[in-house]
Write a structure and sequence with these properties.
- With 468 residues, this protein is an alpha/beta fold.
- It folds into 3 domains: 139 residues, Response regulator (Rossmann fold, 3-Layer(aba) Sandwich), CATH 3.40.50.2300; 167 residues, 3-Layer(aba) Sandwich (Rossmann fold); 122 residues, no CATH class.
- It is 48% helix and 13% strand.
- It is built from 21 helices and 16 strands.
- The protein has a 5-stranded parallel β-sheet with strand order 2-1-3-4-5, with helices on both faces. A 5-stranded parallel β-sheet has the order 7-10-13-6-14.
- Helix 7 crosses helix 8, helix 11 packs across helix 13 and helix 20 packs across helix 21.
- The radius of gyration is 25 Å and the shape is globular.
- The structure holds adenosine-5'-triphosphate (ATP) and magnesium ion.
- The site of adenosine-5'-triphosphate has 18 residues, from helix 8 and helix 16.
- The site of magnesium ion (MG) has 3 residues, from helix 8.
C-alpha cells in the first residue's frame, strides 16, 4: 500500500459534518469535484455561477466554498467578496484556469484561503480540502475549560472579568449581551466553573435552533406517549441541571408563547413536563445570552419586559473586539499557540507574528469579533509556509483595512502611499515565500532586477532569512 492510499484511507469520512459548496460553470468540473469531495464524507452542494451560489448557501452559510473565477452572471471574485462580507468565517478556495500572480494576490487579499490553477491534481485538492475541513471541525469541537482561557488585558475586558468573578458567586440570573463572536458562551461557562455549583451539570440549549414544541419538551421534559415518537419519558434540562446551570443561548429568538412559560419557571422554579398532569420542583441557576438589543425588543413588544427583568438581574456586556484593542495581540498570540498545537506537526517551529500582521490586525474592523480573529490566525498558520506570519496570510481583505485608514485626515498622496506599500509588501513576501528566500529567483519571478528587488526589501525592512 503506498502512502497516498494510506492517506486516502485515513481521511475517509473524516469530514462528516462539514458543508462544502462547489461553484463552476463547467458541469464536468462541478460534478467531478462534488464526487471527489463527497467521498471525504463532507456534505457537498454545487452551483453554476455566483448568483446560484449565494442562493445555494442559504441563510445558515457553508463551511467551505470552492469557486472558479471566470463565470457568467457573477464572477468568482465578486462571489468571494460577497461571501466574506456576509460570512467572514467561511473558508474560500479559488480554482481557476487563468492563474496569474496578480489574480492570486488579489484573491488572497480579499480573504481566499487558497488559490489553485487548473488543471489541478485531484489528490492535491483532496489533501487541501481535508486539511481545511479538519480545522473547521477542530474549531467547532473545541471545548476547553473556560475560566483560565479567557484572555483579557484591555481595561474594558478586565472590568468585565471582575464582574464575572463577582457574579459567579451569586445565584441570581445573569444576562450576557454582546455581538456575535465576543465570547458569550465562554463567559457563561466561566460563570459556571467559578460558581459553588461547578461540579453540578452545565446544561446549554440554543433557543434559536428549536421550535416552540421542541423547546418545551427539551427544557421541561415529557412523559411517555406525550406525542408521536415519545416512546419513553424524558427529563427536561431544568431537571437535569440538578442545582447546576441552565444556559439559554440566543434568547431573543425564543417564540413569544414560550416566553410566558419560561417566566413562570423563573418565578416558581416548577416545571410541568409535556403530557404530565403535575408540576415538579426544579433547582437551577439561569444564564441567558443574546446578541440582539433586548431593551429595544421590549419596546416593540417582541420580547416580554417582565421576562427581561427576571433574566437580567445582573447584566454582563461584552464589548466588540474593536473596543478592546489591548486584547487583540494577546488573543492572537494565544490562538497562535493553540492552533499550532492542533495544526502543525509535533516539534515544528511555531511561526512568528510579523509587525505588519499585527498592524493589519489593529486596523481591521472585526465584524466577527474574537471568533473571526481566531479564524484568521488559524488560516494564517495553515497558509503560511515560512517562519513568519505576515498580513497577507491573515486574509482579512483590504476593504475593511482601507476603510479604517481612509479617515479624512489622510491626504490623497498619503493614502496612495499606504496602498502602494501594502501591495509591495504582500507581493515581495509572496515571491520570497515561493523562492524560499532566494532573492535572485524571487526578483526574476517578478520581472525585477535583483538590485530593484533588494531596494524594496530594504525600504520595507523585509528580511530574506524569514523565508529561508
Ligand atoms: N476573551 C477570550 N479569550 C479567549 N478565547 C476567546 C475569548 N473570547 C472568545 N473566545 C473564543 O472565541 C470563540 C467565540 O466565542 P463564543 O462562542 O463564546 O462567542 P459568542 O459570543 O457566544 O458568539 P455567538 O454570538 O456567535 O454565539 C470561541 O472559540 C471562544 O473560545
Ligand atoms: Mg454563542
Amino acid at each position: 500500500m503506498n502512502s497516498d492510499t494510506v492517506l486516502e484511507k485515513k481521511s475517509d469520512q473524516d469530514l462528516a459534518g462539514v458543508s462544502i459548496l462547489v461553484v463552476d460553470d463547467e458541469a464536468d468540473i462541478r460534478q467531478g469535484l462534488q464526487f471527489l469531495l463527497t467521498k471525504l464524507g463532507a456534505e457537498v452542494r454545487s452551483a453554476g455561477d455566483g448568483i446560484e451560489a449565494l442562493d445555494a448557501i442559504g441563510p445558515e452559510g457553508v463551511d467551505i466554498v470552492l469557486t472558479d473565477l471566470m463565470m457568467p452572471n457573477m464572477s468568482g471574485s465578486d462571489l468571494l467578496l460577497a461571501v466574506k462580507e456576509r460570512w467572514p468565517l467561511t473558508t474560500v478556495i479559488v480554482l481557476t484556469g487563468f492563474g496569474t500572480i496578480q489574480s492570486a494576490v488579489s484573491c488572497i487579499q480579499a480573504g481566499a484561503a487558497h488559490f489553485m490553477t487548473k488543471p489541478f491534481d485531484n489528490s492535491e485538492v483532496r489533501r487541501l480540502v481535508s486539511r481545511l475541513g479538519r480545522s473547521v471541525l477542530a474549531a467547532r469541537a473545541k471545548s476547553r475549560p473556560a475560566v483560565g482561557s479567557i484572555i483579557a488585558e484591555d481595561p474594558a475586558m478586565l472590568e468585565v472579568l471582575e464582574l464575572v468573578h463577582r457574579a459567579a458567586k451569586t445565584k441570581v440570573p445573569v444576562l450576557i449581551e454582546g455581538a456575535s463572536g465576543t465570547g458569550k458562551e465562554l463567559v457563561a461557562k466561566a460563570l459556571h466553573d467559578l460558581s459553588h455549583e461547578k461540579d453540578r451539570p452545565f446544561m446549554a440549549v440554543n433557543t434559536a435552533a428549536l421550535s416552540e414544541s421542541l423547546l418545551e419538551s427539551e427544557l421541561f421534559g415529557h412523559t411517555r406517549g406525550a406525542f408521536t415518537g415519545a416512546d419513553r419519558s424524558k427529563e427536561g434540562l431544568f431537571a437535569q441541571a440538578k442545582g447546576g446551570t441552565v444556559f439559554l443561548d440566543e434568547i431573543s429568538s425564543m417564540p413569544s408563547a414560550f416566553q410566558s412559560k419560561l417566566l413562570r419557571v423563573l418565578q416558581e422554579h416548577m416545571v410541568r413536563p409535556v403530557g404530565a398532569s403535575e408540576e415538579r420542583a426544579v433547582q437551577f441557576r439561569l444564564i441567558a445570552a443574546s446578541n440582539q438589543d433586548l431593551d429595544a425588543m421590549t419596546r416593540t413588544g417582541a420580547f416580554r419586559e417582565d421576562l427581561l427583568y427576571r433574566l437580567a438581574v445582573l447584566r454582563i456586556v461584552l464589548p466588540p473586539l474593536t473596543e478592546r484593542p489591548g486584547d487583540i495581540e494577546p488573543l492572537a498570540r494565544f490562538f497562535l499557540q493553540e492552533c499550532a498545537a492542533d495544526c502543525l506537526e509535533p516539534g515544528a517551529a511555531i511561526p512568528e507574528l510579523s509587525t505588519d500582521a499585527l498592524a493589519a490586525m489593529r486596523s481591521h474592523r472585526w465584524p466577527g469579533n474574537v471568533r473571526e480573529l481566531q479564524n484568521a490566525i488559524q488560516r494564517a498558520v495553515i497558509v503560511c509556509r515560512g517562519s513568519r506570519i505576515s498580513a497577507i496570510h491573515l486574509g482579512l481583505g483590504n476593504r475593511s483595512q482601507l476603510s479604517q485608514n481612509s479617515a479624512e485626515e489622510l491626504s490623497y498622496q498619503a493614502e496612495k502611499q499606504v496602498v502602494i506599500e501594502r501591495f509591495q509588501r504582500e507581493f515581495v513576501n509572496r515571491a520570497l515565500e515561493t523562492s524560499d528566500g532566494n532573492i535572485s529567483l524571487a526578483a526574476t519571478q517578478c520581472g525585477l532586477t535583483r538590485a530593484a528587488f533588494q531596494r524594496i526589501m530594504r525600504q520595507l525592512k523585509i528580511d530574506r532569512h524569514d523565508f529561508a
